[in-house]
Design a protein that fits this description.
The complex is a heterodimer. Chain A is an alpha/beta fold. Chain A folds into two domains: 1-48 and 67-162 and 209-356 and 460-484 and 531-599, FAD/NAD(P)-binding domain (3-Layer(bba) Sandwich), CATH 3.50.50.60; 181-207 and 357-455 and 486-522, Cholesterol Oxidase, domain 2, CATH 3.30.410. Helix content of chain A is 25%, strand content 16%. In chain A, helix 1 (22-33) packs parallel to helix 17 and helix 5 (146-160) packs across helix 17. Chain A starts with 12 loop residues before the first strand and ends with a helix. In chain B, helix 2 (53-66) crosses helix 3 (81-89) and helix 4 (94-118) packs across helix 6 (148-165). The chains are: A alpha/beta, B mainly alpha.
């Protein structure tokens, strides 16, 4: 089965999956290999990384040296199609006009969604991350523990391919032996950071990223993922065989035509399509989930963007994996007599407790890294090292003024040049001519940057609802965001800023970022890290949560939310791996329900 | 705050009445959110260029003073830098629209200054004349008050030239970038780099 248009859909499917990113891709994979007939609805166009990825294009070959523009906010070669902070015809609104209370919503209208351009950082939540409230009294515990998810993390890591090492650090789980792919060698700036950060107590270790540093073991992994199912093993093995290992060039954010990194379009969807159990309808902008007289979801109404016409899909179960924002919007727009405030919203909690990752950054210049002999450090197209949160002990001893933690992501600067000035005026001091070229060469590779990626506590002020006035091009009410950082987050970025300054100074470097005193001036706006989760939390009881531990809504048993919406907390670990692990777990549960005839 | 107030306060809303990636010049249209990423683009492919013959001449001469031919690489004008500058100032995006008057006014200023001093266009000056003018505007932090605007232009022009120059493979060589090639393995920095930095490879 194939990628089809609206007019070619089947009369009824077992499962309709809304969204084709990490959660939707994983559900399509799990359910179709489990034998269910699925249809996937994607609001954007079809997208084929094999033919569309600009792999070796130089910046001079793109317009404006491939610089960022309003049309391509992450640069011309960013994989994102028809997306960005604003999407034409699909507005969203803000409840406040204060700069620090804005929520920036990144969307990608394309098959595979945001997985096409993401950073591929794939960190497991640790045991503490599932029980945060039990540890510090804030936010919410998950109704599951690390042990409930550990095997699914392992399965996802084996399927998508994740490089890294087991560090044994606190609340930074190890993968079973042989699961992780070899970590790439450290780059110059990463090794220098590692050496000097130690002097200020920051441990820098290999990061985990979803990039193949060697080919996947296609002969043995499929049997571990699908024991006893030779048909599924064959399909998954064949798909793995078609993925090449990284050839150490081109940034992952462009996508990957050789399928060396994970994107839904190169890892989840090809085997799902090969089962013959999946139809994909691109350009399908979902408006609402329909409810049958039995109180179960029975399908989806969407706008076929190619014609502007409304269309319907019937299904025995529905999976929403459209991103936290879109999933909330669809639920709130699915009103009926049974659910006047939106589907699965008897608790009134749909849209509540929206979270993002706390972000801030400091950059510097390090004389030690000047005049380094030219060498190729493109590497794996993203970071090789990071610093996991390292101060659990201090926190336990009551010596920290904020809860939870952050990890540090880092960047050096021997990347592909172009589109920006390699010699800032204050360093060049008026240089032009040969002097300019010499100085540019001297400083190239000597700039470093450190980013805080931290855990915010869900709060009452961060949520989204439907705007009472504004509608999108198709007349569908749009989201309105409400956002307010709490003291916790502001304290955390202050700590991060101090830490980064100390790291840069320990390296003998100079801070280049302008250091503001007011943390509200340097904490990134909500949404900016593009880790939006929450909005339909999972919990122990129907009155206090939207989903149960299986990502299944309490109110509508055949409705599953398989993106970040069910997250009761947003650990500093990037959410994508956890979205996939939970989706696989939910998919297995859904398959079991189907086997028992409960759909 | 009401939605209407949020809207009127310029909230992040893209209503149909607000044109996306605003076109502020006659014929220049943005490339949109789904451009062909495989294609090789040349300045002028996406929107009409701006420079007239005199501006091309001045821009080329100044670009070559900033990035001349030497053992680190060819002169800027031979690498298409002037065309890339022209594409830049002609583009229908905010950043470029802000840069446009700085560059166009600056090119006019440098020819006028040159004629005032030497009765010749900037491009027709000997090296000594070119550097004499550049020396008074090359450092915005030190420029005399009367040359502040010109110094801001020089700073912007230098940055844009460098952004274009180093986007080319010749520019990579000049800077010391040796990537964008497929490798069988990634071995990390070579021993002489590790030795210079005083670090060891910690991933074995």
């Amino acid at each position: 089965m194939p990628i089809i248009t609206s007019s070619k859909t089947q009369p009824e499917y077992d499962v309709a999956i809304v969204g084709s990113g990490a959660g939707g891709g994983q559900m399509a994979f799990t359910l179709t290999l489990g034998g269910l007939k699925c249809v996937m609805l994607e609001a954007g166009r079809n997208y084929d990384p094999a033919t569309e990825t600009p792999m070796f294009q130089t910046k001079a070959q793109g317009p404006l040296q491939a610089s960022r523009t309003e049309d391509k906010p992450f640069g011309f070669y960013d994989a994102t199609v028809d997306g960005g902070w604003q999407v034409p015809n699909e507005p969203y609104t803000q409840a406040s006009d204060k700069p620090e209370e804005q929520f920036a919503w990144w969307r990608a209208r394309m098959l595979g969604g945001r997985t096409n351009h993401w950073g591929r950082i794939s960190l497991r939540n640790g045991p503490y991350d599932f029980k945060p409230k039990s540890r510090d009294g804030l936010g919410f515990d998950w109704p599951i523990s690390y042990e409930d998810v550990a095997d699914y993390y392992t399965k996802v890591e084996m399927l998508i391919g994740v490089y890294g090492t087991n560090t044994g650090m606190e609340n930074t789980p190890s993968s079973p032996d042989g699961v992780l792919l070899p970590p790439p060698k450290g780059r110059a700036s990463e090794l220098v950071t590692q050496k000097y950060a130690k002097k200020v107590g920051v441990p820098v270790v290999p990061i985990h990223r979803a990039v193949l540093t060697k080919p996947l073991d296609w002969q043995n992994i499929p049997a571990k993922l699908h024991p006893g199912n030779a048909w599924a093993q064959k399909i998954v093995g064949d798909s793995m065989l078609q993925r090449a290992a990284c050839f150490w060039a081109t940034e992952c954010g462009r996508g990957c035509s050789i399928r060396a990194n994970y994107q839904s379009t190169t890892v989840h969807l090809p085997p799902a399509l090969a089962t013959g159990n999946l139809d994909i309808v691109p350009n399908a902008h979902v408006r609402e989930i329909t409810l049958g007289p039995d109180g179960k979801a029975n399908g989806v109404i969407y706008i076929d963007k190619t014609t502007g016409q409304e269309a319907r899909i019937k299904a025995k179960a529905v999976v929403l994996a459209a991103s936290s924002g879109e999933t909330v919007r669809i639920l709130l727009n699915s009103k009926s007599n049974a659910f006047p405030d939106g589907l699965a919203n008897r608790s009134g909690l749909v849209g509540k407790y929206l979270m993002d990752t706390i972000g801030t950054g400091v950059s510097g210049q390090v004389p030690l890294l000047e005049n380094v002999p030219p060498h190729n450090e493109d590497g794996a197209g993203g970071s090789h090292f990071y610093a996991p949160w390292w101060l659990y002990g201090e926190q336990k001893a009551g010596r920290m003024d904020f809860p939870r933690g952050y990890h540090i992501e880092m960047g050096g600067s021997r990347g592909m040049p172009g589109g920006s000035n390699p010699l800032p005026d204050d360093l060049g001091r008026g240089a032009y001519g040969r002097k300019f070229k010499e100085e540019a060469r001297r400083y190239y590779g000597s700039f470093v940057g450190y980013s805080c990626r931290g855990e915010m506590i869900p709060n009452e002020d961060c949520y989204c609802d439907l705007d009472p006035v504004v509608k999108d091009k198709w007349g569908i009410p749009v989201l309105r965001f409400h956002w307010k950082w709490a003291e916790h987050e502001l304290k955390q970025v202050q700590h991060a800023q101090r830490t980064f300054v100390a790291m840069i100074e320990a390296m003998g470097g100079t801070v280049r970022s302008r250091l503001e005193a007011d943390p509200l001036k340097y904490i990134e706006n909500g949404g900016k890290i593009i880790h939006e989760v929450g909005g339909a939390l999972m919990g122990e009881a129907a009155e206090k949560s939207v989903c149960n531990q299986w990502n299944q809504t309490w109110d509508v048993k055949n409705l599953f939310l398989c993106d970040g919406t069910p997250f009761p907390s947003n650990a500093d670990k990037n959410p994508t791996l956890t979205i996939m692990a939970l989706a696989w777990r939910a998919g297995d549960h859904l398959l079991e329900q189907a086997r028992q005839g409960n759909l | 705050m009401t939605t209407a107030a949020a809207l009127s306060a310029g909230a992040a809303v893209d209503l149909p009445s607000v044109s996306y990636g605003q076109v502020k010049q006659g014929a220049a249209k943005p490339y949109g959110t789904d451009p062909d990423l495989q294609k090789v683009y040349r300045p002028g492919d996406l929107w009409p260029l701006t420079f007239d013959a005199r501006q091309i001449k001045a821009a080329g001469a100044l670009a070559d003073v900033i990035l001349p031919a030497d053992d680190l690489g060819p002169a800027a004008s031979t690498l298409g830098v002037v065309d890339m500058l022209d594409e830049w100032v002609s583009a229908p995006y905010d950043t470029q629209q802000k840069d446009r008057p700085i560059i166009l006014d600056g090119l006019a200023w440098i020819d006028a200054e040159s004629r005032k001093r030497y009765q010749k266009d900037f491009a027709d000056l000997p090296e000594s004349g070119k550097t004499a003018i550049c020396d008074v505007i090359c450092d915005p932090a030190k420029a005399d008050k009367e040359f502040r605007t010109a110094a801001r232009f020089f700073s912007k022009f230098r940055a844009l030239c460098a952004g274009a120059y180093y986007a080319t493979p010749d520019g990579w060589k000049a800077l010391g970038y040796v990537g964008n090639v497929a490798l069988a393995s990634f071995d990390g920095p070579p021993p002489e780099v590790l030795a210079q930095l005083g670090v060891e490879q910690t991933v074995v």
